[in-house]
Amino acid sequence: MLLPLLAATQCKSQQTNSTKSTTMDTSKNFAITKTDEEWKQILTPEEYRVLRQKGTERPFTSEYETLWDTGTYVCKACGAELFTSNTKFDAHCGWPSFYKSIDKSAVKEVVDSSHGMVRTEVVCAQCGGHLGHVFDDGYEQPTGLRYCINGVSLGFKKKE
Length: 160
Known about the structure:
Number of domains: 1
Order of helices and strands: HHHEEEEEEEEE
Oligomer: single chain
Number of helices: 3
Number of strands: 9
Largest sheet: 6 strands, antiparallel
CATH superfamily: Peptide methionine sulfoxide reductase
Radius of gyration: 15 Å
Strand order of the largest sheet: 3-4-8-7-6-5
CATH architecture: Beta Complex
Shape: globular
């Protein structure tokens, strides 16, 4: 009981509303574009809900939250490289956290004023898939940033 409360406190801006039905704004120009039906063919229902409808997975459910292998995290929808394992850290919030993206052009930041607050949403720069949010909350990482990312939005390529 204490663990979910702690997660909610530490990542209070991350929402877990599974009934959210906002779909991606397809008017943005992304290199990879597909119809909703095409996305539904390649993504699981949960991946579609998070990546295309801006949902959030439950905290502490991602296989990547506690994965510390060396490698590269990629967009689950399109395979674009997003984060490296050497920028991952344990923010104790229930979602994989990184202090910077693999490259400044890998992700786009979008103002998110949903749920009565203003946050910075992070989307894949290639396909526009919703990844999570970035917070400037002063973690003792080199950037002071915390990219709080839905694990269901990610894939992982282990370094051999």
